[in-house]
Amino acid sequence: MKNPTREERQWLFRYLEDHLLGATGGVRLFQAAARTWAGTRHGRTLSRLHDEINHERSELLTSLRAQGHRPNPAKMFFGHVSAAAARLNPLNVSKAENGPGAQLELEALQSLVRGKEALWETLLALLDDGWSFAGYDRGHLTQLAERARGQQREIAAIMVSTAAERFRA
Questions:
Q1: Is 133 helix (H, G, I), strand (E, B) or coil?
Q2: Which stretch of 34-48, 53-67, 69-83 has the lowest confidence by average pLDDT?
Q3: What distance in Å separates the CA atoms of residue 151 and residue 158, rounded to the nearest whole number?
Q4: CB 117 within 8 A of CB 149
Q5: Is the Cβ–Cβ distance between 107 and 162 less than 8 Å?
Q6: Measured between alpha carbons, how far is 115 from 105 in angstroms, rounded to an integer?
Q7: Which of 119, 132, 120 is nearest to 8 (CA)?
Q8: pLDDT (tens digit, 9 = 90+) per residue, 140-149?
Q9: Please, is 67 exposed, middle or buried when counting C-beta atoms within 10 Å of its C-beta (0-12, 13-18, 19+)?
Q10: Residue 155 to residue 147: CA distance in whole angstroms
């Protein structure tokens, strides 16, 4: 174990910024999905997932700032532009819970959460190498990785339980 150099921390910050960028669009995609599924038995689940992911994104931004890093303004501007596009829900333009657009929307949500799980697993591995992260310890990162796996299971359950009706419509 060794302390990371300044250059190594900059590499990490770029990586974390990229996850922050993805999370910004992901929050909007979850918000769009929650609207799509509002009034269905899955609407509350997707709304809760949106809230959880939005909170995790805020936590990541807080951690970056606590480590003395300010995210690249151009990158964050791009993230907000992408998030605005995500709000339009390009994967499910009809905003219906049936059809191929709804299937793609759910698959994209699951992929986003898998990417987030990979982030937490990466940070756990770096902890083993002597790194530290403001606001994140082993217990919290483990909890976040487990939550991401649970979120993936919830999205998969929605996909499986609605697939037949989605493609019959």
A1: strand
A2: 69-83
A3: 11
A4: yes
A5: no
A6: 15
A7: 132
A8: 999 999 999 9
A9: middle
A10: 12
Q: What is the pLDDT of residues 15-30, one digit of tens each?
A: 999 999 889 888 988 9
- Count CB neighbours of 155 within 10 A: 26
SS3 82: helix
Q: Quote the tokens at residue 69.
A: 């890093």
- Residue 148, burial from CB neighbour count under 10 angstroms (0-12, 13-18, 19+): buried
Which of 74-78, 111-115, 123-127, 134-138 is least confident? 74-78
Name residue 24's amino acid: T
Query: CB 88: neighbour CB atoms within 10 A?
Result: 12
39's torsion region: left (phi>0), alpha (psi -120 to 50) or beta? left
* Cβ atoms of 25 and 83 closer than 8 Å: yes
Is 98 exposed, middle or buried (CB count within 10 Å of its CB: 0-12, 13-18, 19+)?
Answer: middle
